[in-house]
Amino acid sequence: xxxxxxxxxxxxxxxxxxxxxxxxxxxxxxxxxxxxxxxxxxxxxxxxxxxxxxxxxxxxxxxxxxxxxxxxxxxxxxxxxxxxxxxxxxxxxxxxxxxxxxxxxxxxxxxxxxxxxxxxxxxxxxxxxxxxxxxxxxxxxxxxxxxxxxxxxxxxxxxxxxxxxxxxxxxxxxxxxxxxxxxxxxxxxxxxxxxxxxxxxxxxxxxxxxxxxxxxxxxxxxxxxxxxxxxxxxxxxxxxxxxxxxxxxxxxxxxxxxxxxxxxxxxxxxxxxxxxxxxxxxxxxxxxxxxxxxxxxxxxxxxxxxxxxxxxxxxxxxxxxxxxxxxxxxxxxxxxxx
Amino acid sequence: xxxxxxxxxxxxxxxxxxxxxxxxxxxxxxxxxxxxxxxxxxxxxxxxxxxxxxxxxxxxxxxxxxxxxxxxxxxxxxxxxxxxxxxxxxxxxxxxxxxxxxxxxxxxxxxxxxxxxxxxxxxxxxxxxxxxxxxxxxxxxxxxxxxxxxxxxxxxxxxxxxxxxxxxxxxxxxxxxxxxxxxxxxxxxxxxxxxxxxxxxxxxxxxxxxxxxxxxxxxxxxxxxxxxxxxxxxxxxxxxxxxxxxxxxxxxxxxxxxxxxxxxxxxxxxxxxxxxxxxxxxxxxxxxxxxxxxxxxxxxxxxxxxxxxxxxxxxxxxxxxxxxxxxxxxxxxxxxxx
Lengths: 338, 338
Fold this sequence. Notes:
- The structure is a homodimer.
- Chain A is of the alpha/beta class.
- Chain A has helices at about 20-25, 30, 50-65, 80-90, 115-125, 155-165, 175-185, 195-200, 205, 220-230, 250-255, 265-275, 285-295; strands at about 5, 10-15, 35-40, 70-75, 95, 130, 170, 190-195, 240, 305-315, 330-335.
- In chain A, α4 (about 80-90) runs parallel beside α5.
- The longest helix of chain A is centred in the N-terminal third of the chain and has 14 residues, at about 50-65.
- Chain A is globular.
- The interface of A and B includes residues 140, 142, 143 and 225 of A.
């Protein structure tokens, strides 16, 4: 049986929700092959203080004891430099920035990044990374819609990096050729996370299936090709963040559908399947387990995960959430963790 | 009360369906302010012979006695030069070409236009226009998806025109800046129809509402701007074809949604509202009642339609079909036909 063994896997962008949904999905992180994850703060209420982050971690840890949870704060006008310092002292991982109104629970997001210069200054000094949902809100008069909202954000990313060159910035879930080129061209302190679903989908896939619909939306084949190419090339500033975002089936299938693709329980098998098809299975390890940890200066690990080439069918539903590739065959399976 | 009076209105692209749906929507053509319309042949079975076209016209005429129905044939490998000649003699209006698989009932559509040279030759000689759904099928390896399927078709349109410069060709439901520029740049025998919904919507509108979803999909704000600009400029080769395409509510709201926006019963009020907002109400008349008839050499008319500035609310549903702008306020109303 053909197998591959890789180090402990990091998911640098994950939504674990709250309450019953958290109880359901947090234990699936390990099932999908991930041992350490960065947990998003767009809960209700959002996570804006170290205390909230610690309480949220406790809630999640109780249902996912084997998973290492790296917590984040939601960039918001209430956030102070003192809080940033406190967060860093208490092992909060980073700060997440949502532009206002572009995705789930982003109504309190940021309208103008320049208002946060003092926060970015403090983060740069302390070494806390800024994780950015890189889209600008739709605006017809500025020719901005969901298809170019990421590309139109890139000048903002460039400005931010040039003002705070020492601040580590991650452009989350890059979806466009333009974003890949932009991040590639910026310095060693700017990286991007890549999701499983943006490696797999284009607009034609989500138009006919709301379970493939997320923000930023999957775009043109040439965009997907660019994402596949950068990952296949083994570029160290492009690493894995699933943006797995569970919503109950009924809220995905109603009008309008909630944005979010759920991949947590199938991640490593599906990633192995994808990299295998792309002919770059040898690049999987660095993508999932090395590059991100290096960028974020996280300690290496002795733990490993083994995948074997073995067919299985993705369940049509996990609890109340429909996963990516529901009912489809995958060719790789997790066979051992140690 | 502010009113505008325009000549009899032509809808150069309309789906009237069959059976119960036809009984429901055909009478609404007059309700929407249209007196003469070009009826699409993508029925089940499709309309490929003059006899079928005549029978279909009879079926529709019996439920819409006041409407002038111009019938079309579906371009298909069974279609012969003899049939084209017969069609022309029997007042069939034109031939519609669907690329295979791009929209409702297009599974029998055309894969390769060059196979129809003898048909186009005959149509050119006789003066029968070719009406084209100008999209190529999605194909990831060629970077073709629903967002650029029209733009990728344009070289085909240019080739066709250069081979048959005397053939009148209409690019139906133009949705992109690229298509507007292309048609503008071609000779006097190439025109485009413009729908109400592509004057109004962008991708952001149909992503959250399947009743706004049609093929070709509404695209970027700059595409809508280009459509608005050409219409506002009063260009004589851009005229009205609604592509109103009713589907029962449940088939629009299921996964995947059927492609088609239903506008028949609200057309002239909504068009007046739109042109009013765009500041080009003086251009409405030529767009709906003059340019298309001139291009197609149809006789002028003495009939008129009067609209008044008067608020009303679009019904949430007509029979089993949800219209564009369901539940929304429009500022113009049809007050007289004579």
